[in-house]
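Objective 1b: paired records.
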Amino acid sequence: MVNSFKDYNRNSHIDYWLLIAVLGLSIIGLIMVFSSSAILAKQNYNNKLYFFERQLIFFFIGIIIMLISLKIPVKFWIKFKYVFVSIGICLLALTVFSPLGIEAGNAKRWLDFKFFTFQPLEIVKVFLVFYLAYFYANKQDKIQSFGIGILPPLVITLFLSALLILQPDLGGAAFLLLLFLSVAFVGGVPLGKLFGLGIAGIGGLLFFIFSASYRIKRVEAFLHPFSDPGDKGYQLVQSFYGLANGGLLGVGLGEGKQKFFYLPEAHNDFILSILGEEMGFIGLSIVFLLVLILFWRWLKIVLSQEDLENKLLAFGLGLILLVGMFLNMGVVLGVLPPKGVTMPFVSYGGSSLLSSFLCVGILLKLERKG
């Protein structure tokens, strides 16, 4: 793999620190997907390698996507921004309104293409960043005007968010709004205008939370998980048990007990709990260190861009990865309310893995330009 990068352009360098962080997280993810899902896979598919094999396939496809994106000019992604956004709208609409949408947990968030399932939200995040980077880099002279500098990207973001709320996926909608506000702020929109939009967004978020009983239960479970450990607080309490059992060094790889149907979504949202149980504080610290390296290299890439469009693109793509990581870690550690947010590169899921590798490929390309 390293030779492929060297052969691509011997006169250019690759950000090996970023590459090491991403591949390190992915390899840890592969190991933990196998460890955390083998029992479930054996029960449901009579093949304990079922989830691991699929994750491994998506890992190699992700590597190919990353290598291909290194050869594609950055302007390509910006040039076809409207095409990408239109594709994103169609995918979300298909999820909600077509038979291709898969319903699970009272929500339709995946598309069923027979041989694989796909979660459109993961790629829609990337497509939205393409558009926002273009818009705020090329509307600097009109950025003070609400009707021109804020309203068009706000309408597109709200439309995408509305399709997500229909699934329903309130967390995904909030993620897109956070992307919009963050890129708009870095793009130069006055803080006062963004503050008003932020307050309105928080108000809308609270309205949707308190309009559904199951969302209220999630908040209550976050605030007082041990008041009802058998029901509302069950998932979070089991996550705490896994982390507590791990101690400093862990009980040993493959020796954890929480994956024996105690902890729901052990190979997805709460895979870090299994990692903490089996590899202990040391194992979690390695993951946190790799995330810190990724954060460091992302900042370096953003700050090295002289072109505003590239700077905003790098900022938005890195934000997708890091916000996802921080949200997942916050849920596992009980700092944030439980929400279906996967850990990029680590949790099981092809949609997240492929879109994450696309983000990294473009960041590596931008690092060369910086």
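Objective 1b, second protein:
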Amino acid sequence: MDYKIGLLGRIFVLTLTLFLFAYMILTEAGVFAISLFIILTFVQLILLIRYAESSFNKVRQFLDNIKQNNYSTVYPVKFDGTETDDLHIEFNAILAKLKEDQMEKEANFHYFRTVFQHLSIGLITFEADGSVQILNTAAKRMLNIEKLSHIQEIASINKELHHAIENLRTGGSELIKIAHPDGIMQLSVYAIELVLRDVKFKLVSLQNIQSELEEKEMEAWQNLIRVLTHEIMNSIAPISSLAATISMDINQKLNQQAAVDTEELQDYQMGLSTIEKRSEGLINFVSDFRSLAHIPAPKFSAIKIRDLFDQMDMLLQNQLETQKVNLHKQITPEDLLLFADCSQIEQVLINLTQNAIHALEDAPEKNLYLRAFIDDQGKIIIEVEDSGKGIEEEALSKIFIPFFTTKKRGSGIGLSLSKQIMRRHKGNIQVKSSRNKGTIFKLIFNA
């Protein structure tokens, strides 16, 4: 029976009963008849309320099923065209759609979990209280463990790794060396902080870059050996040739027991002087090489970047005036502080500004910019920019190699030394250059 017709019918019968009940009261019918009609009225009211609540109870049951993720309930459909039938059809359609969405969500979850587990990069996710959510197979293999319940447990494996994981913020990265049964591993640790459904958690990736580092190290050694061989041969070849010539001439004089005149002595003296100068050059070259391998550990202190830039301005004042270079200083915010070794960072800035001034020698507009600011990731950035001729693309990939230089006069260790100092500060140095537009060196300090 249609719900509306059933409801209207029950209301009509209740109304008729009430009308008859009122009529009997007015006609002073007997107590038995009136009592009977009173009972009949209450019964009809209860039946009417139950009938009216029947659809509400179905809706409440339907909502409870959704709340409990129970999509297996099927409401009976008689296909008699009634509103109850239509309601059941809608209920079944909604439950079927929700069930399909749940199955798709579960399939996606299993898919991504499978991908997560089979990635070659180690991944760990943990909440703010340190409880680990997911630990993939690669991370287990790198850490040589079977399970990880709390992130604190990593401290027993490697304290430095645990400290990095706990303290790295979004975008932060660090290189950690750990011992492993298969040998020493160099792990690149990268962290991202996320919020999902008001729950904070951190995603940490671990990548073993030992083989890549060894390959780069071998490449660096080959480049270094190539440069060293070139420089040493350039110095030794003329020394050897000149020494052989002088030795041969002296031996010839000794064999012939010939006298040596003043002019020949002057030639010998000039040759020996040349050998001495080239030997000193070779000694200075080796000394420069040794300086690269003996950079002292930085002594960290708070530095006002404004004071650092003012100091650079004072040191360069004579050169800037002589070369007619305009120095522009920009610091945002004005009271920006840097925690670093003041003397070492000053040395880096001296190297970069000297290179910039050299690049501005033939520039029509001679502008040198010193900038300091905080980027979107909270890192302190110092930039040294010039409006000079720029660096050729081929040289860009080699400028940090020790003893490589594009200058006619230069040791080629300034940029290499600067890069090592920045690495000692857990930072980095980057360069961007365009021909005839200028060069920007960027010092990046991880906050």
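The first strand starts at residue 122 and ends at 127. Residues 73 and 415 are 72 Å apart (CA to CA).
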